[in-house]
Amino acid sequence: MAAYNECSGEAFASAVSKFSDFSDPALTTFVAMLGISTMCFVVSTISGNASQVDKIWSMTPVLYSWMALDASSSRSLLMAVLATVWGVRLTWNFNRRGGYEWPPWKGEEDYRWPALRQGIIPGFTTLDRPIPWMIFNLTFISFYQNALLWLTAAPSLVVWAAANSDKCSGAKDLNWLDYVAAALMLTFITIESVADNQQYAFQTEKYRKKDAGEPLEGDMADGFNQSGLYAIVRKPNYASEQSIWVCYYFFGVAATGNILNWSVLGCLLLIALFQGSGWMTELITLKKYPKYAIYMQRVGQYLPFKFIWNKVRGEEAKRD
C-alpha cells in the first residue's frame, strides 16, 4: 500500500512540476482548453448562439485523451479508445437533432440558454440584461464548462504521469479494475444510446402526428416520454453520462492504486453540474407540461428507487 501511495503522490507531483514542460500533456491539454474556451466565447458572442460549447462537448474529452496517450501503456490506449466510442456516439446523436449546420456557429441552440437569457429562471433573472449575460457567457458557459470537460478527461493525465513515473511499477499494465471500469463504461454508453434513441423516436413521432393533425394519446398527449427507460428514471441519459465519467476516473485509480487523486474533481463537478442542469430542465418542462409533476412523484430523476418500490409493492403508480 505504501508503494501505491507513493505512486499516487508521484503522479500528482509530476502533473505539477512539469506543468511548464510542453512535453507533458497536462500543459498542452490545458493550453488547448484555454484556446477552445476563448474561441467559444468569441463565436457565441458574435453569433448570438450560446451553444458553442455544446457543439464540442463530445469532442474535447476525446481530444484530450489522445493528447495524453502514452503509447507504451495499454491502459492509456484503452482510455482513449473508450473516450472515442463515447464521443462518436454522442456527436452522432447531437448531429441528428440538428446541432450542426453550416456555417458551424449555427445549428440548434439548447433551449435552456434562451430561458436563462430571458431571465425566467429563479435566481438568474438578471441575465436578461446584456452585461450580466456576457459575464455569465464568459465565465460559466465558455470557460467553466470547458474547464470541466478538461477535468473529466484528467484521469488520462494521471495515467500518463503514472506510466512515466519510476515509483509506479506496473502502472502500464491492465488489471482487474481496468476491465471492470471498461465493462461498466461500455454498459452506460449503451444505456445512454438506448435512452437517446427512445427519446428521439418519441419526439419525432409526436411532432409528426402534430404536423399531420393526428390525435395524440398516452404519453404523447401528456407531451413527454414516460415509457421504456423513462419509466424507470426520468433522465436515464443524464444518469448514464454521469456514470460514464465516474467509471473513467477509476482508470486513474487502477494506475496508482489509490482511490483518491486530483482528477476526481472532474466527475464530482460533472455530477454537480447535472444537479443544476437537471433542476433547470425540469423547471422548464413543468411550465410546459403540467402532468410532469405527477410523473416526478412516481419516477426518480436519476436513481430507480421509486420504480423498484412500485414493483415490490406490485402496484402501478397512477398516471393521472
Architecture overview:
By secondary structure, the chain is mainly α. It has helices at residues 2-17, 25-47, 52-56, 60-67, 74-96, 112-117, 130-152, 155-163, 176-212, 219-222, 236-256, 264-288, 292-298, 305-313. The chain starts with a helix and ends in a 7-residue tail after the last helix. Mean pLDDT is 90; it is low at 1-5.
Short description:
This protein has 320 residues and is mainly α.
Helicity, as a percent range: 55-70%
Computed CA radius of gyration, to the nearest angstrom: 22 Å
List low-confidence stretches. 1-5
Count of DSSP-assigned helices: 14
Could you state the oligomeric state of the chains shown?
A: single chain
Structural class: mainly alpha
Biggest sheet descriptor: none
Order of helices and strands: HHHHHHHHHHHHHH
Question: If you average the pLDDT, what whole number results?
Answer: 90
Could you give the distance between the termini?
A: 56 Å
Strands, total number:
0
The shape, in one word, is globular
Query: DSSP strand (E) fraction?
Result: under 5%
Pfam families: DUF1295
Keywords: Membrane, Transmembrane, Transmembrane helix
Protein name: Steroid 5-alpha reductase C-terminal domain-containing protein
InterPro entries: UstE-like (IPR010721)
From the structure above, extract its key features.
transmembrane, Steroid 5-alpha reductase C-terminal domain-containing protein, 14 helices, globular, mainly alpha, membrane, about 325 residues, UstE-like, disordered N terminus, single chain
What's the topology here?
Layout: H1 2-17, H2 25-47, H3 52-56, H4 60-67, H5 74-96, H6 112-117, H7 130-152, H8 155-163, H9 176-212, H10 219-222, H11 236-256, H12 264-288, H13 292-298, H14 305-313
